[in-house]
Design brief:
single chain, 1 helix, Thrombin, subunit H, 112 residues
């Protein structure tokens, strides 16, 4: 894993807590969740949402493992800091050697 492979700059965002302590508010931004990343786009597809087709592009976002990155769950989303594109996190896959973390995400859908 070379440093030149991580060319994208992303930020992981989590929803703010409302008055009841539920995470239903706006997306929060914290500097500790900014990092370099690498995208691997997978074969896209279509899902039916409310009787209409919606294009979905799955992508694996790989980042270096750190304490902050190990806190990220599927409740977060990924924001591309260069383009502004938002990715919904579907699963978190840590590497067995604990050097990188892969986030299986997709574009499109309700949260993006």
């Amino acid at each position: 894993m070379r440093s030149g492979e991580f060319r994208e700059r992303v930020q992981f965002q989590q929803r703010a807590e409302d008055a009841n302590g539920d995470r239903l508010g706006d997306w929060e931004t914290e500097d500790r969740f900014k990092t370099a990343a690498r995208y691997t786009f997978l074969r896209g597809g279509e899902t039916v949402m409310q009787a209409r087709l919606t294009g979905v592009q799955p992508v694996v976002i790989r980042v270096r493992a750190s304490g902050a990155m190990r806190e990220v769950t599927a409740d977060f989303r990924v924001l591309d800091l260069r383009t502004g594109a938002a990715f919904n996190i579907r699963s978190v896959l840590p590497d067995l050697r604990r050097k990188v973390i892969d986030f299986t995400c997709d574009t499109g859908g309700a949260d993006g």
